Amino acid sequence: MKNPFKKQSIVDTLVNVGVGGAANVLIDYAITLLPAETQKTLEGTTTHIAKIAIGALGGSMAKNKYLRAATDGIAVVGVSNWVNELMTGEEKTTNNGGENTSGAPFIGTGRIRTGQRGFRRGVRGTGAVAFMGA
After folding, report:
1. pLDDT per position as a tens digit, 52-97
2. CA of 20: how far to CAs of 16, 57, 64, 73, 83, in Å?
3. pLDDT band at 121, cuts 50/70/90?
4. Long-range CB contact pairs, 61-67, < 8 A, 24+
5. What is the rounded distance in angstroms from the CA atom of residue 47 to the CA atom of residue 30?
6. Each residue of 80-109: b (16+ CB within 10 Å) or e?
């Protein structure tokens, strides 16, 4: 069997991931250097959309593979943070975030009850056979 792992592919992937992550950190650091009023306007969804736009436009224009890796990394982190914000339902500027990533409320003990209670009571007593449709 042929080895699917090629040394050059692994090295290229590691370099791309490293350059993309470093570029995202550089963008975040540049935001912290801005005045406080500007930082407040750039937090949350605005930052995520700006990172996606920078990554998409910069990546489409870049000829250098390292510059393309940097812009791709910025866009990927922007999309990831934006999706995470949408799932948790709260804006996050740090990674400590909410308790539950699914967006469902945290209830502690017990369970989330879905469906109509009257329907569940009407089916009660017939067992799993009626539930499974047999």
Report:
1. 998 999 888 988 989 999 999 999 998 998 888 888 876 545 545 4
2. 6, 15, 13, 4, 19
3. low
4. 65/16, 66/15, 66/19
5. 12
6. ebbebbeebeeeeeeeeeeeeeeeeeeeee
